[in-house]
């Protein structure tokens, strides 16, 4: 069976103007260049999953032993503009994605990110996100909430924060119910859920939904925003009093049901903690394992946009393929294998992918293919 990854999230048209300085309030200045490209965190992560399980040239792909992964994008675009047909759809399909679960909201517009890049300040940017159909078409209604588990059941579900947070919560609750009812363990229990809180929902998510999250993936800023207030933290995991932020965040989310807490550290690489969900203990190498993995070597850092999204693509494709190998072998992986070996491979692959991304200019355009990592 071909593994399936389903990404539920945003699709945007990125409108990028480059300038030698940002305009002052009330001022109009002339930009040095303008481009439109496909974007949105959901679409970026979907493209990353598509490309990182495919070879850029399909002619050479037959030589590879790895089959492409089936990648579905779930989201909503507007019918008032042509951004989906002219921009998003061609890019997504060229990356091998299935776009059949993208709905069109006739009366709304496709999400837009207006991005101003200051070319004199090391490429610093300012972004204004107008959600459009990402919100109106992804409301927490039964039709949308059931998309996570719509047959065929995926191996991996990936979600972020650019669609209504009530929808993210609702989908996670549906998945928690499903896993509870399945009464099975390991890969038989249902899909593995990756949640990337970008942007981080103010005040986090309700505690109960973390039962459905297997992988919580954040950068350092998002980890700070997702950390609960001290009182709340100590109510859930009293033993972490006085510990560093990473340790506090990891134990808190493990206790609430997350198995893998992953914090990306930019040029420093990534730190992760794997722990039996529902428990919160110090790392003992058995029931809990933590590790920091340095970033892959880069020749030059040109543009870090989409590094995090590329990381998630490298990670999700590794987990999806690993699940397929498990299914074929019928052997149940030990905790040590999952927490140490599989995660180590996944983090290194994700790191190699994002290293290629930061060496190139652009967002979605800079996401590499499998044969490039
Ligand atoms: P985000 O892009 O979401 O802010 P990070 O900045 O943490 O996330 O980057 C995600 C991953 O991209 C890192 O874990 C690392 O593997 C890679 N990465 C980012 N910046 C660099 C860099 N300057 N050099 C090498 N790798 C990088
Ligand atoms: Na980035």
Automatic annotation (TrEMBL):
InterPro entries in UniProt: Carboh/pur_kinase_PfkB_CS, PfkB_dom, Ribo/fructo_kinase, Ribokinase, Ribokinase-like
Matching PANTHER family: RIBOKINASE, SUGAR KINASE
UniProt keyword Signal, yes or no: no
Cofactor: binding comment: Requires a divalent cation, most likely magnesium in vivo, as an electrophilic catalyst to aid phosphoryl group transfer. It is the chelate of the metal and the nucleotide that is the actual substrate.
Subunit structure as annotated in this protein's UniProt entry: Homodimer.
Residue intervals of the Carbohydrate kinase PfkB domain: 5-369
Entry superkingdom: Eukaryota
Record protein name field: Ribokinase
Binding residues for substrate: 12-14, 40-44, 162, 309
Reactions accelerated catalytically: D-ribose + ATP = D-ribose 5-phosphate + ADP + H(+)
GO molecular function: ATP binding; metal ion binding; ribokinase activity
Record text on activity regulation: Activated by a monovalent cation that binds near, but not in, the active site. The most likely occupant of the site in vivo is potassium. Ion binding induces a conformational change that may alter substrate affinity.
Gene Ontology terms describing biological process: D-ribose catabolic process
Function: Catalyzes the phosphorylation of ribose at O-5 in a reaction requiring ATP and magnesium. The resulting D-ribose-5-phosphate can then be used either for sythesis of nucleotides, histidine, and tryptophan, or as a component of the pentose phosphate pathway.
Active site: 309 (proton acceptor)
Record-stated family: Belongs to the carbohydrate kinase pfkB family.
Biological source species: Talaromyces atroroseus
Pfam family, one: PfkB
């Amino acid at each position: 069976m071909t593994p399936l990854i389903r990404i539920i999230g945003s699709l945007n048209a990125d409108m990028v103007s480059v300038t030698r300085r940002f305009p002052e309030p009330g001022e109009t200045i002339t930009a040095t260049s303008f481009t439109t490209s496909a974007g949105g965190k959901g679409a970026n992560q979907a493209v990353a999953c598509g490309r990182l399980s495919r070879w850029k040239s399909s002619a050479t792909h037959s030589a590879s032993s790895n089959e492409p992964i089936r990648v579905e994008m779930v989201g909503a675009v507007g019918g008032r503009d042509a951004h989906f047909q002219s921009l998003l759809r061609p890019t997504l399909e060229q990356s091998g994605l299935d776009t059949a679960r993208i709905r069109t909201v006739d009366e709304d517009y496709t999400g837009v990110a207006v991005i101003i890049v200051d070319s004199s300040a090391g490429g610093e940017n300012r972004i204004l996100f107008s959600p459009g159909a990402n919100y109106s078409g992804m409301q927490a209604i039964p039709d949308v909430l059931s998309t996570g588990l719509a047959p065929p059941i995926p191996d991996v579900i990936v979600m972020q924060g650019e669609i209504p947070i009530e929808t993210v919560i609702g989908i996670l609750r549906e998945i928690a119910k499903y896993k509870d009812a399945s009464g099975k363990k390991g890969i038989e229990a249902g899909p593995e859920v990756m949640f990337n809180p970008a942007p981080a929902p103010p005040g986090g998510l309700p505690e109960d939904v973390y039962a459905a999250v297997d992988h919580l993936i954040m950068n350092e800023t998002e980890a700070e925003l997702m950390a609960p207030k001290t009182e709340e933290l100590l109510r859930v995991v009293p033993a972490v009093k006085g510990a560093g932020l990473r340790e506090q965040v990891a134990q808190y989310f493990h206790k609430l049901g997350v198995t893998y807490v992953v914090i990306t550290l930019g040029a420093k690489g990534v730190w992760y903690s794997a722990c039996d969900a529902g428990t919160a203990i110090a790392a003992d190498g058995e029931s809990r394992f933590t590790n920091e993995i340095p970033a892959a070597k880069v020749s030059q850092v040109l543009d870090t946009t989409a590094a995090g999204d590329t990381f998630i693509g490298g990670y999700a494709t590794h987990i999806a393929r690993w699940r397929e190998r498990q299914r074929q072998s019928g052997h149940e992986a030990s905790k040590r294998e999952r927490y140490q070996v599989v995660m180590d491979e996944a983090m290194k692959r994700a790191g190699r992918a994002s290293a290629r991304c930061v060496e190139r200019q652009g967002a979605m355009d800079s996401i590499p293919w499998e044969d490039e990592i």
